[in-house]
Specification:
Aldehyde Dehydrogenase, Chain A, domain 1; Ald_DH/histidinol_DH; Acyl-CoA reductase; globular; 353 residues; 2 domains; Aldehyde Dehydrogenase, Chain A, domain 2
């Protein structure tokens, strides 16, 4: 158990290190281990991340780092791990294919592989290739036993014993064929929804705006669709999300807004819009950037039944007392360590391979 304890300690130190990069002004703190070696270098990696992927704005990078800084505490790590039998495993080499839609989106898989006692072979997205390799150097310096257990590759994956792969529905079919015969977790497209009743407070609807607009809506935990009752009044919703109006000042988001609006108008679709978000009635879950789909329901029971039947397409359901497993307004981008992507327990999988 001392090996796991040492790894937990290393990740706790990493959380404290990341805590320096979670405010508008990055301030170097005292008593952070190995700061002289890594602080300035990580500032540079953040700059490179922003330059490489213009969706990774400083605000969104800071937000992602703040979530991990808050998660990587001793109490939260121990609480997460308390449900598992963490006896030593026979070390395996686990390939992890990471998405690049939001900053450090593959970090939970990375953490899970190392904590479980395996080695990780990470294949990064070109959209998010700067932060994790640098933070891995910090971890290896903090806990020497991690040296040799972390590999990053841009080449064809070889010499692995198991795989965790995240991609689209199309790439998932390729993954399932390519990795057949290996223990695997293959993740496909998922989207998040909100079920509204018309009784939401302004504070709840404002918080829903965070679920919609954080990371420009690029994450699978971003709400991309609303379920609303018949005769729903959208005015309180539009009033509440007005605080996010400045998102339209970001050029890439504005370009998507203008393009999708033109497509909808030329196609004679009925849309509601407020200058920075369009609402379109649609049965689908995956809405384009700057668009939110909505679907009307007759009863809460009908929505519950539909979402249960189609749960393989759903990552999060936002609501207040509408579903057994729901996420509170404003919390989709604040998952706990035990909130596994696609509802598949990654750590349990890793402890059994």
């Amino acid at each position: 158990m001392s090996d796991i304890h040492n790894k937990i300690t290393a990740f706790v130190k990493l959380g404290k290190f990341l805590g320096q990069f979670t405010g508008k002004d990055i301030v170097k703190k005292e008593n952070i281990e190995y700061n002289e070696l890594f602080f300035e270098g990580f500032k540079h990696q953040l700059k490179l991340a922003e330059e490489t992927n213009s969706w990774f704005t400083k605000e969104n990078l800071i937000y992602a780092l703040s979530q991990w800084s808050e998660a990587l505490t001793e109490d939260k790590l121990l609480n997460w791990l308390s449900d598992y039998d963490l006896r030593p495993v026979t070390p395996k080499r686990v390939a992890v294919i990471m998405a690049g839609n939001i900053p450090m989106v593959g970090f939970h898989d990375f953490l899970s592989v190392l904590i479980s006692g395996h080695s990780v072979i990470a294949k990064l997205s070109s959209n998010d290739k700067h932060l994790l390799p640098y933070l891995s150097k910090y971890l290896e310096h903090t806990e020497p036993s991690l040296k040799g257990t972390i590999t990053f590759t841009e080449d064809k994956l070889e010499g692995f014993d198991a795989v965790i792969a995240t991609g689209s529905d199309n790439t998932a079919r390729y993954f399932e064929f390519y990795f057949k015969g290996k223990p695997s977790i293959i993740r496909k497209n998922r989207n998040s929804v909100a079920v509204l009743t018309g009784k939401e407070t302004k504070e709840e609807l404002e918080a829903l705006g965070e679920d919609i607009f954080r990371y420009y809506g690029l994450g699978c935990r971003n709400v991309s669709k609303l379920f609303i009752p018949e005769n729903y009044d959208f005015d309180p919703f539009f009033d509440a999300i007005y605080k996010y109006k400045d998102i339209i000042n970001y050029p890439k988001y504005a370009n998507n807004y203008d393009y999708n609006k033109a497509v909808y108008l030329m196609s004679l679709f009925d849309i509601l819009e407020n200058g920075f978000l369009m609402l379109k009635e649609d049965d689908s879950y995956a809405s384009p950037i700057a668009t939110l789909f909505y679907e009307k329901y007759v009863s809460i029971e009908s929505v519950q039944e539909k979402l249960n039947v189609e749960k393989e397409s759903i990552q999060c359901v936002v609501g207040n007392g509408v579903m057994e497993h729901e996420t509170g307004f404003g919390n989709t981008q604040k998952p706990k360590l035990s909130d596994y992507a696609d509802g598949v327990d990654t750590l349990d999988f890793l402890l059994r391979i």
